[in-house]
Amino acid sequence: MVVYWPLEQVECPLNFPRGIWNTKTPKVANVVDILSVVGIWTSEISKKTYILRKHPALAMLSMEESGLVEEANTDEDMVDVAELQSI
User: 5, 22 in Cβ contact below 8 A?
Assistant: First the structure.
């Protein structure tokens, strides 16, 4: 669940929804499936918020390719320099 401010004064110029956040009336929604489908960007100049659909091909990327998984730096992953020199 996520608490959010609804987008009001929604316009769709060139088929891109944009609007202004209503910061006085928070709402609650289930966000599990939302973040994989859209991205949210707010212009610093116009203060308009854009809801942008992510490209469908992003679903074909692995977690590592999409940048959602950090590389593990454990001791097991580390190679001793002395071992490399002896090879």
Answer: yes
What is the structure's pLDDT at 84? 46
Contact status, residue 20 vs residue 7, Cβ threshold 8 Å: yes
The Cα angle at residue 81 between residues 75 and 82, in degrees rounded to 5: 115
pTM for the model stands at 0.40
Question: Is residue 47 within 8 Å of 28, Cβ to Cβ?
Answer: no
Q: What is the pLDDT of residues 63-78, one digit of tens each?
A: 788 776 665 544 454 4
Rounded CA separation 63/67 (Å): 6
Please tell me whether residue 18 adopts helix, strand or coil conformation.
strand
